[in-house]
C-alpha cells in the first residue's frame, strides 16, 4: 500500500488543509457539531483520547505535589473588577448570567425569562478561575505554614467565540487549570517553570509533538500575569499552535483579593502566585501533527486502541479456529498493558474494517486467515508508514510491543525533523515576508523589543511573536521591521 493513497471520504491536505482537518475530526469520530452555536460534542472515541491525556497529566501533576479540587462554574461580576488587567483581557469573551428563573408567557404560549427574577449581581460563566480561587485562598492562607498551596482542577470554561473550529477554538472547552500560592517570588517562578517543563515532557513523550519552550511578550502575555511561559508546536501546514501556558502572576491577585500570610518573623506579606493550563486544543494539535490523507494517526501512548486483530475467514467455524489460535497473543499483549481488540463483527467485510481502523488511527493492525495459521504466521501492518510484515506467530507478541515503541519514536522524530527544517533565520524584512508568505514555519528574527513594532508586524503579515525561546542567546542586530537596535532574536509565525 502506498502513502499516496487517499481515503475518498477525506479531503487531501494539499487541496484544502482546513477541510482535511474537519473531515478527520468528524469521520474518525472525535467530535461533532452541537445545536449550541460555537460549542462541540466530544464523541466517545475522542473523549477516550482526552481521558488518556487526563490520566497521564494527572499523574504528572500529583508526582510534583499537586492535588485536585473543584471551584464553582459561576463567578460574581465584582470579582473581575478587582484586577484591572485581568478583566480587560477577558471582558469581551465573557458569558453573563443575569436571571435565575423562566416562566410561561400565557399570551404567547412560550417560555420566557422572568423579568422579576433578575440577579442582584450578575454571574460570569468562568473563562478562567483566578478570581474566584484567590477570593477563596484568602480564607485558606494565614501563615507560611499554609504554603505552598498546590491545587489543580479539571473543568470546563466558556470564552465566547464567534468564529469557532472543533477543538481549536470553541465557546466552551475542557481543560485543567493549576493555581498555586507561594511564600516567595523565587518559589513561584520555579513552580511556573516546572509546570512548563511538565507540559513539554507530556507533549513530546506522550503526544510525540516536539515543542519550543519560551516566554511570551508583554502583548501576548496572559491577562494579569507578570510573565507567561509557553510551549509552541508546529503543525503540518506551517502554522504554530500554542500547546500550553504557565504563568507567574506575581502578587497581582493576592493584592486584588487581600491574600496575606504571616512569615516566620510574624510579618504580613502578600502571597506569590502561579496558574497554568492545557486544554482540549491538544486534541487539535494531535490531529494536525501526525495525521495523513487516510485519516487519523495516533501515537500508541495516547491511542484508545493500540492493536486490532482482523480475522479473514469463511464461516463461523473458521473464525472460531482463528480466534482460538490468536487468543494467547491477545492475553500476552494485555499482560504487557497493550490495549487490543479482536474484531469478530460479521456485519462488515475485512476491507471495510481496514479502512475504518486506518481512519481512526489505530497504530497496529493484525490480519490473520486460515492460510496464515497453516503457515504459522500473521500479517502485521503499522498505521504510520502503512508498511506490512509477515511475522511468525511465536514472535508476534515481542514484535508488536517493539513495534509500538518504534511507532511512538518514529512519529516524534518525523515531527521533530519537520520542526527543525521549518525554523528560518532571517535578517531582512524581505526575507521575513518570503518565509511567512511562501514557506510557513517559524521565523527566527531580530525585534526591537517594542509593542508598537510587534503590533505593526502582526497587522501587516498576521504573524505574531510566538515566544522568546528559553535560553535565548543575546545577539546584537537590527530589527527586521524598524531597523532599530535589537539584542536578541525571537520566534515569529502565523498561528492558530
Averaging pLDDT over every residue, what do you get? Answer: 96
Strand order in space, largest sheet: 3-9-10-16-13-12-11-24-27-23-22
Question: Which descriptor suits the 3D outline?
Answer: globular
What is the CATH architecture descriptor of the largest domain?
Answer: 2-Layer Sandwich
Task: Tell me the β content.
Answer: 25-35%
Q: How far do the termini sit from each other?
A: 33 Å
Kindly name the structural category.
alpha+beta
Number of helical segments with 4 or more residues:
14
Q: How many distinct beta strands?
A: 27
Spans where pLDDT lies below 50 across 5 or more residues = none
Indicate the CATH topology of the largest domain.
BirA Bifunctional Protein, domain 2
Largest sheet: 11 strands, mixed
The amount of helix comes to 25-40%
Q: Would you give an account of this structure?
A:
- The protein has 496 residues and is an alpha+beta fold.
- It folds into three domains: 17-72 and 135-290, Bira Bifunctional Protein, Domain 2 (BirA Bifunctional Protein, domain 2, 2-Layer Sandwich); 307-404, Anticodon-binding domain (Rossmann fold); 423-493, C-terminal domain of ProRS (Translation Initiation Factor IF3, 2-Layer Sandwich).
- 35% of the residues lie in helices and 28% in strands.
- It has an eleven-stranded mixed beta sheet, with helices on both faces.
- Helix 9 packs across helix 12.
- The model has no long low-confidence stretch (mean pLDDT 96).
